[in-house]
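=== RUN LOG ===
request id: a7f3
mode: sequence -> structure
chains: 1
length: 535
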Amino acid sequence: MKKFNYFLPLFISCLIFISFRYMNDKPNGTSENKSSQHEIFAVTSRQLNANNISAWFRTNGSFNRDPATGNSGFEWPKGSGKYARFASGIWVGCKSGNDTLTAVAEYQYDYLPGYVDDAGLPQGNDNPLYRIYSITRGNTTDPDYLNWPVNQGAYTTPSGTPFFLGTQTMFYSYTDAYPHSSGQTSLLSLKAQILQTNWCYADAGLEDAEFIEFKIINRSNSPWADTYIAFWTDDDLGDGSDDAIGCDTLRNLGFTYNITDSDPQYGAAPPAVGTKLLRSPVIFTGNNNDTAKYYNPPGSQNLVIKVGYKFTEMKIFNTYNNGSPQPSDPNSNVETYRVLEGKWKFGDSWVNPVNGHTTTKAYSGDPVSGTGWVMTGGNDRRYLQSFGPFNMNPGDTQSVIIAQLIARGSSNLNSIRDLRTLSDHVQTVYDNNFQSVLAVNNISSEIPDYFTLRQNYPNPFNPATNLEFGIANLGFVSLKVYDALGKEIKTLVNEMKSPGTYRVDFDGNGLASGIYFYKLSTDVFSDTKRMILLK
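=== RESULT ===
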């Protein structure tokens, strides 16, 4: 009887899977022809929208697609009714024994909310606790804050409270261990569990960026060989039929821009949208000269140092559309895996027409200067940034961190320049472990008439105080704390800042009572004030 009770739900799931797998035609053409998948499972959706971007995220591994309409779901600027991305998602592929296993979130999805238990079985899809949790910095009474899913793997502070990584922070868990339904992948699952954290900042300088971390866990009892993890996107930058794509190999940046200087929806000087790789999977080299360093979680003080390891970086930038120069979306696990490897779905390799060399990075030229391999015409493109190959044993975890970016300049090509500038700023914020935005709050984007450094409050203080300053022009800003002898104690700000008013928290824990000084420096302004730590 127990066997019957165990297999009956699985049998019913398989019947549902077979019934619905081919009900929906694969989207083809522009976004007007892209139909939404019939949702039959407990998939939940939330918007990340604390800054200028409003984007949908779902517990089936997809994002940037409106769950209600099936249309574009990456709105920028927020509230404008204009959209830059139609759909995005995570892909995973590997070799396991004689099988090629793949799972995708494209227009149809192989993931569902939940986890994989110790027996290798999917759980949680029918549990309402496996949903998207969203918290806003400073709000400690929200139900999602009070019920933060620590047991699912959501990040917490050392004291065990929810970790406000951004102005808005999201978390959810999903798996491909249920029967696959995309029609593009293997019938067998990888038994991958993915913990996804999304966050964004309202701070000036980052209002056009969103951050995403995918933590991928091998929950099967078999090794994954030659594993690839990829971020996939179909960008419809306003009207999707006039888009071009490219990759900046130095910045690990993939981007979409308008091939002309006018878009039917965005109008003149349309924006450019892109994806910045910040952290790629870590692979073992055995070379003591290789060292991989990262913070877990990002923004925390938990520094992980792995000697004999290195990051894979962005080895692959692949693309396809609905016709020339290659066929459309892959239609099987083998074809999907080839795309993950950086090939066409039939196995052909890309050839750079400028130098005649085979490559796994398509359109790696510079559209701004017109040099190298660039697209010469616009159409409806998809692209993916893939990382691998590497091996994952049962229980192994890999992390990928990306940022979604968008910028608008004085022309379509100038928008690419601005996107690169934003990409560089985001890289600096990441390299500094997000400390500048976690410690510095932009409390007003209204441009001050002049630079100011205000007296700290409270003063005297024990052990924490607030430092507030105003920036009149975009420029490099430094804010440092010194003791009475002029010795530097701590750097609070050391980066480019947009005009606005900012507040910084300073914690004097571990310091002796006495007089301290804090100094604000820019290219055109400098001021120093005194504060008293009284314990």
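=== NOTES ===
Residues 438-533 form a domain with the Immunoglobulin-like fold (CATH 2.60.40.1930).
DSSP finds five helices and 37 strands in the chain.
=== END ===
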